[in-house]
């Protein structure tokens, strides 16, 4: 899938980056053979984007790395930038300069089943796109979900928290040494932490224009490894996990996008594949057959969230350990007074009962 074939009217780029190539064999990482130097395009008009992205087609399906940046990114925090990683170029879509028209031009691609968006933790990005631009993010491959599924396949104990993107890149199974090989000269893991601190000190970091070299580098680093990680992860997922990856990705996309019609305007969830029913003997995990997965939202009376969370998070951690479901709380960004539960129906109902029990207890 080559985005350059559409010849978008993009000015000559001032920045370049190395994108790691999909792994082949067991050869050690090498800058020249394991990566490609690609241009970074700063996009302010839709005509600068590849035509196959603007007009998705079932005859031209492809995969991109995807991320969003903003000022306190959520339903109310301003979306400032969308990053798109193609195999031959990176596009930084400037929501500040390009405005609503540019982001709306991306809507068909972001909602399309024909373009797979590889992202790490889609929840806040999806929330911002939905409430600010009426975009229902669809067909994502969430590397945070994939990481948990692979750990589950390998029989590892479930983590108390979700893997961060930096920790994922450091994992030798999925990136590790190639991350070091493709780093910008002089960049380190420490710089990503420095930027994280800077964002806390200056929430308007992504609003500033023109883009500084650090802004371009930081935005690029959040997407340029995603296609490589995608290929490394997909070969490690069995058929059962691939279905979980698809359905949980869809549920994570709508997680914080609470509305009054029970998500009726969102795309349908991926059903349990028919052929799975003929393979139940080989698809059993811990004696349980495949079960429909859902998203449930538990409303918490005002002032009662403390009972659900507990001192230093002890109560919510106990609830998580008591059920096989993902429990998400909006925190300072909201939505307030709500707990989101994602997982198999029985486990979601169990988690919801445990949470409601904390509300009425004592």
From TrEMBL:
Enumerate composition-biased segments (Low complexity): 1-17
Q: What is a GO molecular function of this protein?
A: 3'-5' exonuclease activity
Protein name (Swiss-Prot/TrEMBL): 3'-5' exonuclease domain-containing protein
Annotated region (Disordered) at 1-31
Q: Which InterPro entries does the entry mention?
A: 3'-5'_exonuclease_dom, KH_dom, KH_dom_type_1, KH_dom_type_1_sf, RNaseH-like_sf, RNaseH_sf
In terms of Pfam families, this protein maps to: DNA_pol_A_exo1, KH_1
Residue span(s) of domain 3'-5' exonuclease = 40-238
The record's PROSITE patterns line, in alphabetical order, gives:
KH_TYPE_1
Annotated keywords: RNA-binding
**Which superkingdom does the taxonomy of this entry point to?**
Eukaryota
Is the keyword Lipid metabolism in the record?
no
Gene Ontology BP annotations:
nucleobase-containing compound metabolic process
What species is this protein from? Arachis hypogaea (Peanut)
Q: Which residues form the K Homology domain?
A: 292-360
CDD domains, A to Z: Egl_like_exo (cd06148), KH-I (cd00105)
């Amino acid at each position: 899938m080559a985005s350059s074939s559409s010849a978008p009217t993009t000015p000559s780029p001032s920045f370049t980056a190395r994108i790691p190539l999909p792994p082949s064999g067991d050869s050690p990482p090498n800058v020249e053979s394991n990566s490609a130097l690609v241009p970074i395009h700063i996009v302010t008009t839709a005509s600068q984007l590849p035509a196959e992205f603007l007009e998705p087609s079932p005859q031209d399906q492809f995969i991109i790395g995807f991320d969003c940046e903003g000022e306190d990114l959520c339903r109310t925090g301003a979306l400032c930038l969308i990053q798109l990683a193609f195999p031959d170029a990176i596009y930084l879509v400037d929501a500040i300069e390009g405005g609503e028209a540019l982001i709306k031009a991306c809507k068909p691609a972001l909602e399309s089943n024909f373009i797979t968006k590889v992202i790490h933790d889609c929840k806040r990005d999806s929330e911002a796109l939905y409430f600010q631009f009426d975009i229902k993010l669809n067909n994502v491959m969430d590397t945070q979900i994939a990481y948990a599924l692979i750990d589950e396949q390998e029989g590892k104990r479930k983590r108390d928290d979700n893997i961060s993107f930096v920790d994922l890149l450091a994992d030798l199974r999925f990136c590790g040494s190639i991350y070091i090989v493709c780093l910008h000269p002089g960049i380190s893991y420490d710089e990503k932490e420095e930027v994280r601190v800077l964002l806390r000190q200056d929430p308007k970091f992504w609003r500033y224009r023109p883009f500084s070299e650090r802004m371009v580098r930081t935005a690029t680093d959040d997407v340029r490894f995603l296609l490589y990680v995608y290929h490394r992860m997909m070969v490690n997922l069995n058929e059962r996990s691939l279905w979980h990856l698809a359905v949980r990705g869809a549920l994570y996309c709508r997680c914080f996008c609470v509305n009054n019609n029970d998500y009726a305007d969102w795309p349908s969830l991926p059903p349990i594949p028919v052929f799975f029913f003929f393979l139940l003997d080989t698809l059993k995990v811990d004696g349980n057959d495949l079960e429909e997965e859902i998203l449930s939202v538990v409303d918490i009376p005002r002032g009662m969230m403390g009972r659900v969370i507990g001192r230093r998070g002890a109560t919510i951690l106990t609830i998580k350990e008591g059920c096989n479901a993902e429990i998400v709380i909006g925190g300072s960004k909201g939505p307030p007074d709500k707990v989101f539960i994602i997982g198999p129906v029985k486990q979601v109902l169990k988690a919801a009962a445990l949470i409601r029990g904390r509300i009425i207890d004592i």
